[in-house]
Amino acid sequence: MAFSLKSKKTLFSLMKILFGMERSTVYFPVLECVQGKLFVKVQVSWKMKGRVRYTEKHERCILTGFLQQQGCIYVEKVVPAKTFISPGTTQSSAVPSCQALVSQSPSLSSGVYWIDPDGGSQANAFKAYCDMDTDGGDWTLVWSYTFTNYGDFMDKSNAITPRPNWQVDPNANVPISTTLPLNETDYNAMNFSQWKHLGRQVLIKSNINNWLVCHPGTGSLVDWQRGNVSCQIVKRVTDTCKERPAPSTFNPSRYGPIFSTTQLYYYFDCYTQDYWPTHDPCGSGQSNHVTNVVNPHGNIFIR
Ligand SMILES: [Ca+2]
Ligand SMILES: [Ca+2]
C-alpha cells in the first residue's frame, strides 16, 4: 500500500510564511479493514523553528481505492495477482511420483517435475524427469546409462556406466551415481533405495535394443528379488528377431541385474574386467544389439 499526499498547499504555505510553522504528517500502518473500510492512524504535528508546538492524533477511516478528503489522502490498493501453481512445478507443489502428477494434471507432457517419493515434508523433494508418453506414461526416470566400450561390445572392458548403488559384487568397478538423471542422456541414477517408493513396474528403454515394460511376479527389480516377471515389448528398435518373446525372468546377478527369456535379453553388467552388457533383442545372450548408433544409451523408469 502506498500513500501520496496532496496537501492544502496554499494554506500550509501561508502558515509557513506568516508564522514559520511547518506541518508534518505521519501515517501509521492500517489498523483494521472492515467491510471495505480501511482505518489508519494519523499523527499531524505542527512545528515552529524545528520544535513541535502541538500534535493531533486520530484514526482516519478511508475507503479503499477512493479519495477520502479533498486534497488529502489517496489510497492505492495493491492486489497481488492470484496465481495457480500447477502440481509438480515447484518444490512446495511436489507430488509423490510422475504417476501422481498424471492423476492431477492428465494433459502434462514429458519433462522435469518436482517429486517427493517418501511423502511427508517437501523439504527433501527433488526434480525428476517424467515420461508421459510411453505405454500410457506416468514413468519416473531413475537411471540413464551409456557404455564403457560400445565399439567393442563383447569385450570384457565393456560395461554399463554409471551404475545405481544396488548390491553387487564389491569388485564391480564402474562409477556409482546417486544423482538423479534429468534427461535420457544425463548419465546418472537415483539412489536405489528410493526406487521402491515410485512403484514396481519397470520400463527399459535403449536406442540399441527393444523397449520393455516389465510387471513384477515372484521377481522384482526394485525389490532386488529373483523370479518370474511379465514383460512386453512396447517399442521395437530393431527388426532383428521380431518373432522372439519378451523376457520372463529377472535375476539380480553378481555384476548387475539380468532380464532373460531362455538366455540374456538385457544384462546391466557393471564390471570392466569380465562379462559384457548384453542388449540382445533375440534373448539369446548374443551380440544382436543395434550397431553404429550415435550416443548409445539406455534408461530405466519406474511407475
Ligand atoms: Ca518428503
Ligand atoms: Ca564387462
Automatic annotation (TrEMBL):
* Gene Ontology CC: one annotated term: extracellular space
In terms of Gene3D superfamilies, this protein maps to: 2.60.120.1000
Keyword check for Secreted: yes
User: Which compartment or compartments is the protein found in?
Assistant: Secreted
Enumerate the InterPro entries for this protein: Fib_collagen_C, Fibrinogen-like_C, Fibrinogen_a/b/g_C_dom
Pfam families, sorted? COLFI
Q: What Gene Ontology terms describe what this protein does at the molecular function level?
A: extracellular matrix structural constituent; oligosaccharide binding
Occurrences of domain Fibrinogen C-terminal (ranges): 89-142
Q: Does the keyword 4Fe-4S apply?
A: no
Q: Which UniProt keywords apply?
A: Collagen, Disulfide bond, Secreted
Its predominant location is secreted
Can you name this protein? Fibrinogen C-terminal domain-containing protein
Q: Species lineage, top-down?
A: Eukaryota, Metazoa, Cnidaria, Anthozoa, Hexacorallia
